[in-house]
Amino acid sequence: MTEFNNIGLVARMGNDSVVESLRRVRHFLQSHNKNVLLEDTAKDLLKDSSATGYKQAEMGDKCDLVIAVGGDGNILGAARTFAAFGVPILGINRGRLGFLADVSPTAIEKSVGDVLEGNFATEEHFLLEGEVSVEGQKALPCALNEVLISTAKSSRMLEFNLYIDDIFVYKQYSDGLIISSPTGSTAYALSAGGPIMHPSLDAIVLVPMFPHQLNSRPLVVPGDSEIKIVIGSHMGMNAMISFDSQLEFEIAPGESICVKKKAARLKLVHPPGHSFYEVCRSKLDWASRLGA
After folding, report:
1. Cβ neighbours of residue 261 under 8 Å, at least 6 residues apart?
2. How does pLDDT run across 216-268, given as a tens digit for each residue?
């Protein structure tokens, strides 16, 4: 048996299927004499006025395991909080793809039961940390998937200079740049033409968005690289900095953002039989055949 005795439940607002899975997993955990802590949103979804609700930051030092019910976006938000506490996360998929939340809703009891029995694998994912100057103060937001630099005004091109470990790489005119971790290589970076990277790789990929030059290609750099983007003044455009499409900051021409690997890592729990390549086959439809 594992030492997962204090288990947190986190969720995002969604449809009735999220509520149904929340109820099932809570009931299963309680039937196994586990102490269940509810995030505020999970409590609201369950409509349990007798339960205590917690903010995620309050749960970090109280939980041995967190179960996130919803889509990958739910795990993205939870990862930024719980990685700092070293608390592992298990995802129950109620979203669209489920690259990170890989427990099927039909297998909640079986998969969660396996985890409680100690039959699981733990996979570490690093996060990206960005240093942004906002109103004269430094902010250090982080992202599990990607940091996106784009124009703050639609239909306009952005000018920026790219530096890696203080070495000038290039000046670019484009819609922006995606700085992605291996985890994020199957997210926004994939749709922009970036490579698929195994989560265990210690590397970062930079994917230009609609660059105004034909020879611009995705660039894979070592995971310990420090990436600096300086917004150019020629176009006179502010840039929008987005972390996992959930945290946003705006910076002006001449200002910069530095992105590097965050020290704290996300521990993602997978039930028996998990395979990254199987997930790719399933979610990206690699197994289909024309005319089949």
Report:
1. 126, 127, 128, 129, 204, 223, 224
2. 899 999 999 999 999 998 777 899 999 999 999 999 999 999 999 999 999 99
Is 72 assigned a catalytic role? Answer: yes
pLDDT tens for 6-41 read 999 999 877 789 999 999 999 999 999 999 999 999
Mean pLDDT of 269-281: 91
CA gap 28, 30 in Å, rounded? 6
CB 253 within 8 A of CB 185: no
Q: Is 113 exposed, middle or buried (0-12, 13-18, 19+ CB in 10 A)?
A: middle
Q: List Cβ neighbours of 101 (8 Å cut-off, separation of 6 or more).
A: 68, 70, 71, 72, 74, 75, 91, 92, 93, 94, 95
Mean pLDDT of the chain: 92
Per-residue CA distances from 46 to 21, 51, 108, 118 (Å): 10, 10, 17, 28
| Helix pair 16-31, 108-116: axis angle to 10 deg | 40
Pick the CATH number of 6-120+271-283 from 1.10.443.10, 3.40.50.10330, 3.40.50.300, 3.40.50.1820: 3.40.50.10330
How far apart, in whole angstroms, are the C-alpha atoms of residue 122 and residue 266? 10
Domain ranges of the chain: 6-120+271-283, 127-263
Distance CA 244, CA 53 (A): 25
Of 72, 102, 175, 244, the catalytic one is 72
Question: Where does 127-263 sit in CATH, by number?
Answer: 2.60.200.30
**Rounded-to-5 percentages of helix, strand, coil across the chain:** 25, 40, 40
